[in-house]
Design goal:
Largest sheet: 6 strands, mixed
Shape: globular
Strand content: 5-15%
Helix content: 40-55%
Order of helices and strands: HEEHHEHHHHHEHHHHHHEHE
Distance between the termini: 37 Å
Radius of gyration: 19 Å
Length: 302
Amino acid sequence: MIFINKDVRLKVVLLLLVVTINQSVAQKKAGVENSVFWEVSGNGLAQPSYLFGTFHLMSHRYADSLTQVSSRFAAAKTHVSEILLDSTMSGKMMTAAQLEGTTLDRLLTPEQFKQTNDWLQELSGYDLKMFNSINPMTIQVLLTALLQQRHYPLDPIKDIAMDLYFQQRAAKEGKQLIGLETFDDQIHAIFGQFTYERQAQLLVATVAEKDKALTELKSMNKLYREGRLTQLETLMADQVYTPKEAAVMLDNRNKKWMQQLPGIFRQQSTFVAVGALHLAGENGLVMLLRNAGYTVKPLLTK
């Protein structure tokens, strides 16, 4: 993205990698208790490990204010995240976001292109023509990030996205770093399963209901700060993804991660930070770990 510097671009890449996925619950499921922070023990573990549900649009300063989260993080020997981020991610994501064989103005009708352009200009001052070679899913997530920045502004240089912050802090403190999936895994979940036409449908639906998008974003910020996981899950049930799409983006990934987490937990105390909605529902990590025989209890964040 030519209009933002390198540091900000990496934060947008982080959003592209994880925000879309964590807005993908397509049906209501069995809930778990209201918390975004959990202790995992029992089932032969010598020491407890921890699950923390992040909000990818919030900064490290909010994470630092969560005293109980911070203390458990400091004590853990291993840090686990969805994907290990590095300086190569920006270029990789921009390559993956490029359209092949078409352009955005061909995928959208003139009126749809104008409506999307008007909203982008309102939020950023930039023209959609600058992004005519970028796929619709990327534009949709960019609009969400810009909407968050408009109403919950962060310093684009000083503030660090929450997930990236935990990784950087873990590296500084000498913790073992583990990513649960690869860049290619996440690219498939975000882009690979969607045709360009389906991506365009999702973008158009978001733009057509931009007032609803703002209402939901404000609710999401409030519910997350209050630790109301079940209400976050219910809010996300109104999203437009099909059950099959949601399974690829969320449930299937949780089940794949469960093939790795027990072995990681057996080694040493671990702090897992993944998008909050990966913890919710009958196919969320909390329930999957309980079904595997672990004791998973909610903790206060402060």
